[in-house]
Amino acid sequence: MTTPSHRILQALDRFNAAHPWDHNAHFHRWILRRLPRRCDRALDVGCGSGDLARLLTARAGRVHAIDADPDIVTRARERTAPDVPVTFTVAEAPAGMPAGPYDVITCVAAVHHLPLTDALTGFRERLAPGGTLVVVGLAREETAVDHLLALVSSPLNAATGWIRNRGRRAPRPVSMTAATRPAGMTYREIVREARDVLPGAKARRRLFWRYTLVWRDGSGGR
């Protein structure tokens, strides 16, 4: 028997499918506000269709963007003007990440595909002294707070999709076509592991099924 709550969730799923929007892009401007006004080099890990990498050119002189999916890297290149200083490369993180150093490293909705400690260690090793790492990730729901944020996010998700699409049905954004998988680690597990690798890292649960992690390398005297 279908319960009223189940019918509501089904209706929300149908509505969201008709009015999709990119939850990761929602955090792009927030990421930029955590970065220095200008820097030399930036690395975007798990770049997808390249939306964040292109935005990073407003802050960095050179941007290197990597993703393990050759098809999505091809699409990122096709969507980027020739004069935009971004290099897109097919590479597996963390082992295949370029050596650096980088003043800025970003990773959005990709770190849950990777071995967390190895990935964060790789980011730390490639960060220039005084550099900034920003991660937007997904965590498996565990606590009452997690479930409450998910519950609040559901109607907000529908409302945001309606507003962004101006009430019209819309195709799925290119940035949302890459394959993904559910998060395996809980927020508490992620924070515990992250702070072992990145002492002083600042983490926070967010709406829309995301968390953020910011770490600034202290060896640069900042």
What is this entry, summarized?
This protein is of the alpha/beta class. It is 36% helix and 23% strand. Strands 3-2-1-4-5-7-6 form a 7-stranded mixed β-sheet.
Task: Explain what the structure shows.
This protein is an alpha/beta fold and 222 residues long. It has one domain: Rossmann fold (3-Layer(aba) Sandwich). The protein is 36% helix and 23% strand. The protein contains seven helices and seven strands; from the N terminus they run H-H-E-H-E-H-E-E-H-E-H-H-E-E. Strands 3-2-1-4-5-7-6 form a seven-stranded mixed β-sheet. Helix 5 packs parallel to helix 7. The longest helix has 21 residues. The chain is globular. It starts with a helix and ends in a 6-residue tail after the last strand. 32% of the residues are buried. The mean pLDDT is 84.
Please name the defining characteristics of this protein:
Rossmann fold; 7 strands; 7 helices; single chain; alpha/beta; 222 residues
Assigned CATH architecture: 3-Layer(aba) Sandwich
- CATH superfamily label: Vaccinia Virus protein VP39
Question: For this structure, what is the CATH class?
Answer: Alpha Beta
Approximately how much helix is present in the residues?
Answer: 25-40%
- The radius of gyration over CA amounts to 18 Å
Morphology call: globular
Number of strands: 7
